[in-house]
Fold these 2 entries.
Entry 1:
Amino acid sequence: MTLLTHLYTQRINVDLRHLRCFLAVAEEGGFTAAGRRLHLAQPTLTRTIKSLEESLGVQLFERNTRRTELTEKGEKLRENLGPLLGQLDRTLKDLREGEKLRVGFSWGLPEGLSRFAARFAEETGTGVEFVRCEIPRAGLDTGQVHVALLRGAPPPKNLRSRFLYEEPRIAGVPAGWELAARTELDWAELAGLPLIVNTASGTTFPDMWPADRRPAVGAECRNYDEWLEQVAAGLGVGTAPISTARRYTHPSVHLVPLTGAPTVSAHLAYPSHGAHPQAARFVNHAWRASDELQT
C-alpha cells in the first residue's frame, strides 16, 4: 500500500494546502526558499509541515541547524505527489477554460470597465461578457447575467452591491426648442416642461421634484434609444448621466448642462444567494479600482 493510498483509506485530515507546502519544501530543499516561493512566513510554513506530520503520524523531514532532508517516507510522498498535483492543476485549469462571467448593463458602460474586465480575466482565468439588458435590474432578476451595473437608487436588499461612483446629470433638449441654445439649465426649470421617462432603465422620474411642482410626463419609453428619439421628436426633455449622454448623441438633441440636479449613483450588484463563484470577487475588485473606471 502506498503512502497516498494509506492517506485515503484512513481518511486522515490532510488538505491541499498541507500537500503544496510539503512539495515546495521538498523541491526547494529548505523552509526559507519554500517560504519565498509560496509567499509565506517561515514560521507559518513550519507549523503547516508540523501539522501535516502530526496528521499522518509520519516524519517527513530530518531537520538540524544546517540542513533539511527528506526521510525515506518523505521521499516516497514527494515522488507520488508531484505528478498528482500537476495533474490536478491541469484538470482545474481545463475546468476554468471558457468560463464566462456575464455582466449586465442597460446603457453606457463606464469607460474604464472594459479595461478592468480584461485585467480580471487575465488574473482569474474567467472571461467577462458584457450583456445589454434594458430591463429593470439589467437582467439580474431574470438570471440573464451574473452581475449588473445599476444606476440610480441603491439596489434592493436581496442583492449584494458595491457603490462605485456618482456623476452629474445633463439635459437632453429638442434641437428646435429655444432652450437648446442655453448654456445651462436649472433642475427646477424642468418642472415646467414635459418629461421623457424611461420606465425600464431610466434614472429620472417626476417624483424627484417637490409634490407641488412636478413635470408632466410627455412620453414614456423603455430604453435609451427610444428616449433619444422621443426627445428629438419634441415630445419633451430628459436627463441622463453625463457620461452616457456624451457617448450616445443624436443630431436633433442638444445636451445642456444642468445645475442643482441630483447626482446619479452607480453600483455593481449580484444576487445574495446562488451567485456565480466569481461575482463577489469581480465586484469587490471593481470597487477597489472604482477611481479608474471612468478614465
Note: The CA atoms of residues 102 and 146 lie 5 Å apart.
Entry 2:
Amino acid sequence: MTGIDDVARAAGVSAATVSRALSGRGRISDATRARVRAAAADLGYVVSAAASALATGRASNVGVVVPLLDRWFFANVLDGIASRLAPEGYDMTLYSMSDDRAQRDGVLDTSLRRGRVDGLIVLSVTLADDEVDRMLALELPVVGLSATTSRFPALRVDELAVARAATEHLLGLGHRRIAHIGAGYAGDPGLDIPSLRRHGFASAMADAGIPDAPFAAADFTIEGGHRAALALLERDDPPTAIFAASDEIAFGALFAARDRGLDVPGDLSVVGVDGHEMGDFFGLTTVAQFPHEQGERAANAVLAAIDGRDEIGDLAFRLVERTSTSAPRGGLAEVAGRPSP
C-alpha cells in the first residue's frame, strides 16, 4: 500500500512537504505542490481523512442542510456546491431536514455534533428559533443560501424584485387580469421565499391600481400548478396571465391551458421563476436564478468563512423572455376596460 514516504521519494521532497502540498496549507511553491500532487496521482495515493483531521484539526468536509432532495432546483444547487468544493479537497455531506421533529432533532443534536464537518451551508430551510440556537452553538462557520433567518450570514436573491420583474413584465404587455400561483403568507413575508414572491406580486399589482389580484395556493410541483391553474381558469373572470412562483408550477399551468383548449400566449400568458433546464423546451418566460452558480457562490462563501473571511453578497437574477408571454387578445385598450379603436 502506497504511503506518504513513497510519494515523498517520488517527488524528491520530505514527507512534511508532501503533507503541506496535499493539504493545501502551509507555504510551498506552486511548482513543488504540482510535482507532489502529480507523484501522488501516479502512485494512487490518497490522504487519509482521519490522519488529515488529526494533523490539521479539519475534516475537509462541508455539511449541507437541505429541506428536500428531489427538487430540480436543489439538485442543481448541490451540484454547484460539489463542483466548487472538490477541487479544494473538500467532501460534502448532506443533512436532510424534513418536517418530522424527531428527525430534525437527530440532525441537530447528533449528526452535526459528531465533528465531521468544518462548516455548514443551510439551503432554504425554515428553522425555528431554538433550532437556530442549537446550530449556532456548534461554533461552526455557517452560511445560508436563501436562508429564512437573519441570524447567520446568507447569500440571497431579492425575491421581492424577482416577483415584481415577472409581474411588471405581464403588466407591461397589457395584462390586467393577472393571477399568482404559489404559497406563503399575504402579510409580512419575513424571509420566507414563497411569501416574498407573493408579496412582490401583490405590491406590483397594487402599484398598477389593481388590488386584491387573484391568488391560488399550490406546492412547488407540476401537479400543484396544474390543479391551481385549472381552478383559476374556471372562474367567471379567468386570468389572461399567470405569474407562477416556480417554473415547475408554470409547467403545470401550461398543461392546464392545453387541457382547457386555450392558446398560449394568445389566450393565456405564463411566466415562472427559476430558469429550469426544460424552460426553453416549453418556451417558458421565466426569471432565471442560476441555481448552479448559486451553489458555487455558497461553496466559495463557506470556504472563505472557514478561513475567517467574508464572501457574502446578493445573487443574480434575469428575466428571460420566451414564447409563453405576449399581449392579451384585443390589445392594451380592451383589457384596460376601454373599447378598441
Note: The longest helix spans residues 291-306.
